[in-house]
Structures are given as C-alpha cells and as structure tokens.
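Worked example 3 (structure in, sequence out).
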C-alpha cells in the first residue's frame, strides 16, 4: 500500500509541476504579446534580463528568509551554464529575425532530437521503439500545426543551429546540475539568475537596438506599459522556476515533448481571443496528431524499458562525500 501511495503522490506532484509550467508559460506569452504588439515594447533581450533580475530578487529574499539553504555550484559549471543559456536567448531572437516563421518552427522542433542525442551520448539513455515513434508523432503534429512558409538562408541557418544546440545544452544542464550537485530548483536559480540578469541587461539594449533599430532608453514608458512589464517579470519568476522543476523531475526530452502542449494551448487561445481566421482543417488535424503523440509518449516512456539509463556513471557530490557508505551499500546489494 505504501509504494502505491508514494506513486500516487509523485503522480500528483508531477501533474502539479506540469500545470504550473503550462499556466505560467502560456500566461507570459500572452502578456508579452500584448506588451510588444499593443504597446510597442519590442526589446525582447532586455525584457528577459529584467525577468532574471526579478528572479534574482525573489531568490535573494527567500534565501534571507531561510527558505533556500546554502549550496555550492563550481564557477566552471556556472560559466558553462550561463554561456549556453545566453547563447540560447540571443540565438533564438536572431533566428526569429533572420529566418521565415516556418523555418524558425522547424528549428524549435529539432531541439527534441538534439536533446535525445545529448541524453544518449552523455547519460547513456536508451529509448524503446514506441518512445521513439511517439516523439516522431509529436514532431509531425506540431509541424503540421505551425509550419507554413519555409525559406532558408545561410546566416539564418547558422543562427538557428547555434540557438538549437545552446538551448538543448542549457536544458540538459538544468537536469545535470541538479542531479550532480543535489541542488533544488530554487538553489540552481539562485546561482544562475544573477549572472544571467547581469549579462543580459548589459548586452540586451545593444542587441535590441541592432535587431529593432530602437533604443530601450527612448521608449515612451506609460503607466500601463510599466504595469505590463512588471506583470511579465512577475510571471517570469514562476516560468523560470517551473522550467527548472520540470526538467529536474523529468528530463530535457520529456520537457520538450510534453512542453509542446503549450504550443497547442497558445494556438487555441489565439483562436479564442483573436478570431478563427487561422483555424483550418490542417491546424485541427495537427493538434489532434500532436496530442495523441504526447499521450503515447507519456505511456511509452513510463513503461519498463521505455526510457532507461544503461549505466549509473554520474554520482552526485553528496554521494561522493559519503563514498565509503555508498560502497558498503552497493556490496550488500550485490551479495
């Protein structure tokens, strides 16, 4: 009875983590769309820097109140993570500018096979045939929904390539660092958010000026636009935290696959709020295929052998500190 109870609690916690991520992610997309389209605040990189500055403030307050315990993350690991994360943000913004919407969507979809490759190579993960096929179905469905015109140019391809690999590596490292150094989601955010805020706020205004030919310091800040910026930053704390929670509990691949539910919800909400002119048989068919693939993936990956590690080659720091005890337990288990 106890194992079943633990499994039920885990299932509830997993569902709550996904719901938290979906709600905050869809919420921030809607707020940012209104901020940029209605109020003309087109400074995406600077806005992301403000998001991480707000996250830094929240983690600092929680640490001061004692809700976040002291932890350690080596500078080398922090530097790698910041490089991947910032290249991801900058690369995605540049890719969106230099590529057609269709090729941009293809680039985003390619993060799933890249994340699979990283897990296979780095963590020795093995996927069953059904798990691989379900991922392919999700890719097909989301592709049918979102890919329209597709045109490719050299500089756009390079930007997309950098964006895809840096984003996949950043998400892989979220899971890797939490396991490797026994960090909670808030702990990891507390280490990474200040550096991301500082670097993005430093390069953001220059990059945004290059992309939009507008200066963030000359923007006409009104009471309503400032309220939307504040709301965006507030929701971003939940978005950043929920991303770390989900990837920490699952993996980058699961986060990517099931995360496409957000794409479907954004499309549905767009039709609900902004009219049905984009709603056609192709989009509806794509949604049905994608949702079916997500359900299949959840079922296939949870089965024995659906997705499993071939070796346990990544001990945590905590395990290393108690090495002698761990070795003793392993010997007892083998006897």
């Amino acid at each position: 009875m106890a194992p079943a109870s633990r499994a039920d609690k885990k299932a509830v916690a997993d569902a709550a983590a996904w719901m938290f991520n979906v709600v905050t992610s869809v919420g921030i997309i809607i707020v940012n769309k209104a901020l940029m389209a209605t109020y003309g605040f087109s400074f995406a990189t600077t806005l992301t820097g403000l998001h991480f500055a707000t996250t830094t403030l929240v983690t600092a307050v929680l640490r001061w109140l004692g809700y976040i315990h002291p932890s350690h993350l080596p500078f080398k690991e922090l530097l790698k993570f910041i490089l991947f994360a910032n290249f991801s943000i900058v690369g995605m913004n540049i890719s969106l500018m230099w590529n057609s919407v269709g090729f941009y969507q293809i680039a985003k979809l390619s993060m799933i096979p890249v994340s699979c490759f990283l897990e296979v190579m780095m963590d020795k993960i093995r996927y069953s045939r059904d798990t691989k096929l379900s991922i392919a179905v999700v890719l097909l469905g989301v592709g049918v929904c979102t890919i329209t015109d597709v045109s490719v140019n050299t500089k756009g391809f390079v930007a997309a390539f950098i964006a895809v690999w840096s984003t996949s590596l950043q998400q892989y490292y979220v899971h890797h660092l939490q396991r490797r150094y026994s960090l909670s989601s808030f702990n990891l955010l507390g280490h990474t958010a200040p550096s991301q805020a500082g670097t993005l706020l430093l390069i953001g205004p220059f990059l945004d000026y290059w992309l939009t030919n507008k200066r963030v310091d000359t923007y006409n800040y009104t009471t309503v636009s400032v309220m939307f910026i504040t709301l965006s930053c507030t929701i971003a704390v939940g978005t950043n935290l929920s991303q770390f929670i989900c990837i920490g509990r699952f993996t980058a691949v699961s986060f990517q696959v099931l995360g496409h539910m957000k794409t479907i919800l954004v499309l549905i909400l767009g039709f609900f709020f902004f009219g049905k002119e984009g709603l056609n048989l192709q989009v509806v068919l794509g949604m049905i295929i994608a949702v079916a693939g997500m359900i299949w993936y959840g079922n296939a990956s949870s089965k024995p052998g659906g997705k499993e590690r071939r070796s346990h080659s990544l001990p945590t720091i905590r395990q290393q500190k108690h090495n002698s005890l761990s070795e003793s337990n392993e010997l007892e288990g083998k006897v």
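Notes: The two ends are 28 Å apart (CA to CA). The chain is about 80% helix and 0% strand.
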